[in-house]
Amino acid sequence: MRKACLIVMSLLLPLLIWTGWTGESSAAAVKGKIVLDNQELTLPSGAAPENVNGSVMIPIRVVSESLGYQVKWDQKVHKVTISQDFKTIQLTVGSKLADADGVTLNLNAAPKQTGGTVLVPIRFVSEQFGLSVGWDNGEKTVYLSANPIAMPSAAPASQAPQPSASQAASATPSPSATPSPSATPASSSPQASPTPTPSAGIPGTAAVQVKGAAFEANQLMIAVNGSVQPAVTSLDNPNRIVVELPSSMIAPDLAGGLASGTLNTTGYPLISGISYSTVAGNPSSVRFEISTTERLAYQLTVDAGTGLITVSLGTGTSGGSTGNGRPVVVLDAGHGGTQPGTTSAAGRKEKDFNLAVIQRVGALLQNDGRVDVVYTRTQDVTLSLQDRVNIAEAAGADVFVSVHANAMPTSAKNWNQVNGSETYYSRSESLPLARVMHKHLVAGTGLKDNGIRTKSLHVTRETSMPAVLLEAGYLSNVSEAAKLYSTDFQDSLAREIAAGILEYLGL
Questions:
Q1: N or C: which end of the chain has fewer CB within 10 A?
Q2: Where are stretches of biased composition, namely Low complexity (predicted)?
Q3: Residue 89 to residue 469: CA distance in whole angstroms
């Protein structure tokens, strides 16, 4: 049974404005196709993708079962339950609230029942199942992929496919939270796509067209059809981040080609609005302005291979309680004292593994000198979950990272064979951090990738800053437990956790 790789590729998340749909209140059937990993899915009669109030809806049963998930439908309460391994998702027809492993999530459109299937927003599918999403407007085809190499570009099918996830994720972040307008980000693709030739003799014609834009999970994503180097400026009074795309114009695909417009930022309290407009000139340029309620750090990446520009927004750069301008990172070694956590077959305690890794991470970050490190514990002491939250809040932390090792109960099937690494978050604003940290977690452990998961955990739910809990591996698995306590393993994991924190903060 093929399982979805639960890594959300943030550089390819829903840019479904590429479709050119207007987002009117009525639902419109796309009459298109759904292709999963280069295989067209068979859709039930009358269950084509639809556009509902600007949200693309797809039949959940077809996609879920093709990924190896179990799908159950409760006709009495109109609820669909999707499960695989330890992940369970519940959606109710007509409700914009979904449940993912005990965490309540808001949907941008309520699921609807059409014939014998339930349609759900593609944004929710991509985030919860870890799928890459693409759209071919010419063919009216939704592309989904658990394998980024198989993902076609959003351009016509005759063009080359998009680069792999490892290429897309390797973009060099801007060196400072507030670089000058002339700062030029590194491209994540080894070769830039050729810039289309401007139309000769037409004043103001730009070389590059802005094909789509969306704001998802604290990320502004801009799709263009060529190579462009954005200039980004962070401004005060009022707080805003300005993204300028030189030699560009707005394509008809984006809101009918209107010279200006706004993006939906509902559910993001730190974002007061995002607008875009055409700046007259010869050639013209396109400007995006992100208005924020406080000064935010950001990270800019440009993928020349796919024509995707991403501005990932971090947290405030006030430096927390230290007042020196450096971000504050709280490192939490799970358990401790009278709370040993789980225990391996060899009698090794989880609390010792957690502390060893956290101390290594802290030492690396302190030697780097660009962040201030606060530990919840540096010794074998007992702390409540709320104690850990209080420490992070008192420090004015910008990031909270908790390290743990996992275990399966002996009553579970194949309990001693379950293995791998996973990352947990509870609040939607923590998802960008979870994506970055999970990429580094898997690189640091070298173990099976169990993906990013939502769960209502106290330390990730009650903290006000972006927070994640990293489960490095399973102590209930004898082979994996032996690796977790090796010095080389802990050093590798610590290096990657430190690198992930710095990447997320844009340092």
A1: N
A2: 153-200
A3: 20
Does the pTM surpass 0.70? The reply is no
Q: Edge-to-edge, what's the strand order for the sheet holding 328-333?
A: 372-375, 328-333, 399-406, 467-474, 421-425, 449-454
Using only the alpha carbons of the chain, give its radius of gyration: 23
CB proximity list for 104: less than 8 A, separation 6 or greater: 97, 98
Cβ atoms of residues 160 and 191 within 8 Å: no
pLDDT digits 0-9 by tens, 196-205 = 333 322 334 5
- Tell me the per-residue pLDDT of 191-233, one tens digit each, with 9 for 90 and over: 333 333 333 223 345 568 888 888 876 778 888 877 788 888 8
Amino acid identity at 493: L
Q: How far apart are CA 255 and CA 23, in angstroms?
A: 9
Instruction: Give the whole-angstrom CA distance, residue 469 versus residue 400.
Output: 9
Structural domains of the chain, ranges and CATH numbers in brackets? 10-150 (3.30.457.10), 171-314 (2.60.40.3500), 320-504 (3.40.630.40)
3-state secondary structure 105-147: EECCCCCEEECCEEEEEHHHHHHHHCCEEEEECCCCEEEEECC
Task: State CA 392 to chain mean position distance.
Answer: 23
Classify 407 as helix, strand or coil. Answer: coil
CA-based end-to-end distance of the chain: 41
Print burial letters for 146-180: b (CB count within 10 Å at least 16), e (below 16). bbbebbbbbbeeeeebbbbbebbbbbebbeebbbe
Flag the least confident range among 56-60, 168-172, 274-278: 168-172
Strand, coil or helix: 189: coil
Q: Which two tokens stand for residue 496?
A: 């990657």
Asked if 349 and 338 touch (Cβ cutoff 8 Å), the reply is: no
The whole-angstrom separation of Cα 354 and Cα 404 is: 5
Q: Is the separation of the CB atoms in 430 and 468 below 8 Å?
A: yes
381, with CB counted inside 10 A (0-12, 13-18, 19+), is middle
